[in-house]
Amino acid sequence: MQKQLRVAAYAVCVRDGQVLLARWVDRHLGIKQWTLPGGGTDHGEDPYDTVIREVDEETGYAVAPGVLLGVHSRIRQYEREPGDMVDSHGVRIVYEGRITGGRLRNEIGGSTDLAAWHPLEEVPALDRVDLVDVGLTMWRERPADGRVRPAAG
After folding, report:
1. How far apart, in whole angstroms, are the C-alpha atoms of residue 144 and residue 1?
2. Topology (CATH level 3) of domain 2-141
3. Which of 36, 62, 69, 79 has the fewest CB atoms within 10 Å around its CB?
4. Where are the domains of the chain?
5. Contact 85, 78 (CB under 8 A)
6. CB distance 101 to 62 below 8 Å
7. So what's the pLDDT on residue 6?
8. What is the mean pLDDT of residues 104-114?
9. Cα separation of 102 and 84, whole Å?
10. b/e per residue 109-133 (b: at least 16 CB within 10 A)
């Protein structure tokens, strides 16, 4: 089984009771889900610079990363192609982001196809990736160690 490590940086941008999200598209599986704007770091790129670049690419906005809200690790196994299993470890660095300029627009030809502001109270009803909940929990709770504990149950 192939091992894969992916380091990515994301922004939680909240203003006027709304959160900025981008709709991620898995063209292979035909899945579309809302996510925090952000993405993978390029080789040699600082995650701080990654989040600035990715928010611009996915939403059209200039962002100023602020507080480092936390780091979330996700380990999963999945089948990339029939018979090709991947043991994936994603390290997701989450910043609080403040929009400083630009105009809302959709990404063209990338991993997302829409960008939009969503009222915080409507987020639970959205078809979304787990990172949205992780990031919003970090934003609300400001855990001192930067980690979100799984819900008991």
Report:
1. 36
2. Nucleoside Triphosphate Pyrophosphohydrolase (3.90.79)
3. 79
4. 2-141
5. yes
6. yes
7. 94
8. 94
9. 41
10. eebbbbbebbeeeebeeeebbebbe
Residue 14: other Cβ atoms inside 10 A: 19
pLDDT per residue as tens digits for the range 16-31:
999 999 999 987 778 9
Tally helices (H) and strands (E) across the chain.
2, 8
Average pLDDT of span 37-56: 97
Kindly state the tokens that stand for 45: 């790129």
Q: Which of 60, 30, 25, 35 is nearest to 131 (CA)?
A: 35
CA distance 7 to 43: 10
Alpha-carbon radius of gyration of the chain: 15
Long-range contacts of 144-148 (CB under 8 A, 24+ apart): 145/70, 146/68, 146/69, 146/70, 146/71, 147/70, 147/71, 147/72, 148/70, 148/72
Give me 28's structure tokens: 């292979």
- Per this entry, what is the length of the chain? 153
Model pLDDT, residue 80? 74
